[in-house]
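Review form for a predicted model. The reviewer records the input and the model, then writes brief findings.
Reviewer: anonymous (R2)
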Amino acid sequence: MKIRNLIYNARIYTQADNLVVNSIALYDNKIVALGNNLEYDPDFKSYSKFNLKGRTVIPGLVDAHTHFYYLAMTLGHVNLDGVETLESALDKIGRFAKPLGKNDWVVGDGFSPDRLKKRQDIDRYILDKVCGGRPVFIFSKDQHTAWVNSRALALAGIDKNSSALEGGEIVRDGDGIPTGVLRENQAYLPVYRRITRPSKSERDRRYKMALALAYEKGVTGVHSFDGPEAFEYFSALAEKNRLGLRINYYAPADHLPQLVKNKTYYGTGTDFFRLAGVKIFADGSLGSQSAYCFNKYRGSKDNYGIETTTVQEMRLLIKEAARLGLPCAIHAIGDRAIAHVLDVFQAAPKLDFGARHRIEHLQMIRRKDVSRVKNLNIIASMQPSHCPSDIKLVDRYWGKRGANAYIFRTLMDRKIDIAFGSDAPIESLDPVAGIAAAVTRARPKSREVFYPEQRLSAAEALYCFTVGPAVAAGQSHCRGYLLPGYPSDLVVIDRDITRLASTRLYDTKVLATVIDGQVRYCHPSLKLWQ
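Model under review:
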């Protein structure tokens, strides 16, 4: 039986040509009509009607850069984001470890020495003291550095005799002994691969928790940059129509040979899950001082960051991906990494079917390279919540070069297509907070604004969380807008963010999330179909 629903007395932003209406009709999982006062139209007499009493309706919010599967798995880890002292971090890790078995891994996320009230050096030995001999793996907030203990190093076979790594660094003390700090995945993967994975039932439990978090934040879809394990997990759920979100998946570069072998082309998948591209890393991150830059990091002797994939290697990967029609989404944070990525995209094979190459993060770019982004038709995939979070780090490590970081306004004015995301779990999966960050460029209730001339309007930021991700994934013909024929993916919020003082944006609440015509979340104050 087909379900007919009509929402009226609302302020509905379609995202098409500034069209705003007050009613929308949904037939099963599709939008069939938009207009004003459709509740009085005899064509919709049989529709169930829902009065939104002036509330705002927007297209479903899509996070264009997540690690959604990993986000779900972190819901079983110790979360260190926001801890203010090393002592409190160690206490939290120790309490988390205590009930675990002697051979169970202690896994954590979100630790950032640079964000502590007092920065202190970390090593393997202080972890050894609090974890009762269990192996420990703690991700930094940016997930480009791992902090591990002695047992974890031993299990991975990392010791004084381990050779230096290209594209990563085993940090050592004055005697050449590994300290337990591993920078970039070439260094930490030998440890990470030895972590015992959760059971299938536990993974399912955590995934359902992640879905609930997404729904409460108005997220109807994500672009997910996860590993092959996630690809298999998502595929299995999609086959059973139990995925719960629309997911565009970007496979890691080391999975590319398997995609070629299986002839898995661009767009392969279902209405909810599809292969959208290949992910490559050009450099590290700001927080780990491994973003690859033209100038050295302030306070360092000769640290320019880490080139994690060479220009030649990137060229080969892009050429291989193009055999499947797959675009590449290349992580590049430092200005030198971004320049190198633009070089390889300039020589890349042409793509069809709306496929677009992307630069992920695009945090610090030389102004002369902005025109190259435009001319090469590259998607700027950026995370506005990183901006206020990184204010102090940018000043500490990049100094005045920070004027070239997070240049949202410059890119928007140059009509470069922008897709916004969160990089969850590095920042919260919360597009409304992302919109607020793009508009204010400041933390909630903070007066510290990062280069205010680069602020966007709320309407522009909303576009980057709706239409922007659809454009980035080659789906603007069927996603991102509220238009007839498009899926019934929409969100109800408690206020009109386009008419709101910027200081109130962070307080905006999601009241309902509808995906494919189904109400996935509804606040008790609102009545919708169930």
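Findings: The two ends are 15 Å apart (CA to CA).
Further findings: The chain has a mean pLDDT of 96.
Recommendation: see findings above.
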